[in-house]
Design goal:
- With 130 residues, the chain is α+β, with helices and mostly antiparallel strands.
- The protein folds into two domains: 43 residues, no CATH class; 60 residues, OB fold (Dihydrolipoamide Acetyltransferase, E2P) (Beta Barrel).
- The chain has two helices and five strands.
- A five-stranded mixed barrel has the order 1-2-3-5-4.
- Strand 2 and strand 3 form a beta hairpin.
- The longest helix is centred in the middle third of the chain and has 24 residues.
Length: 130
C-alpha cells in the first residue's frame, strides 16, 4: 500500500483523477487470499484523501498565471446580472470566468487564474476572445 501511495504522490499531482472501489471482473483469476472490507475501505479513503490534497496543491500552483481557455459553454454557476462561462485550459483543467457576451462556445479566451477551488479554477478575462 505504501508503495502505491509513493507512486501516486509523484504522478497524481499532474492531473486530477477518480479513485473508486475495484469491481470484480469475471475474466481475472481470483486471488488466493481475501483482504477484509474494512481494510479495503480504509485504503480507499487514504488514496482519495491523498488525491484530493495533490489536486488542490496542483490547482493552487495555477493561481496568478495566465492561460488560454477553450470555452465549452455556460457555467453551471449563473447569476441574473452576469454571465459565467466554463472552459478548459491547456492542461485540461476546468476554468470558470465571467464575461458578458453571448455564444462564446468554441472561442479561445485569455484568462488570469484568480482562485483555485476543489476541482476547478476561477479567473478573469485578460483580453479579447478570438
Amino acid at each position: 500500500m505504501r508503495s502505491v501511495v509513493r507512486a501516486m504522490s509523484g504522478r497524481a499531482a499532474r492531473s486530477p483523477s477518480t479513485i473508486s472501489r475495484y469491481l470484480a471482473r469475471s475474466y481475472l483469476r481470483p486471488m488466493d487470499f481475501k483482504i477484509p472490507e474494512e481494510v479495503k475501505g480504509r485504503r480507499l479513503l487514504e488514496l482519495q484523501e491523498l488525491q484530493n490534497r495533490l489536486t488542490i496543491e496542483a490547482l493552487n500552483r495555477r493561481v496568478g498565471r495566465d492561460c488560454t481557455v477553450l470555452v465549452e459553454g455556460p457555467s453551471r454557476k449563473q447569476e441574473e446580472s452576469t454571465r459565467f462561462w466554463r472552459g478548459r485550459d491547456e492542461g485540461g483543467r476546468v476554468v470558470n470566468f465571467e464575461l458578458d457576451r453571448s455564444d462564446m462556445t468554441g472561442k479561445l479566451v485569455p484568462v488570469r487564474i484568480r482562485e483555485a477551488k476543489k476541482h476547478s479554477l476561477s479567473g478573469e478575462v485578460r483580453g479579447e476572445p478570438w
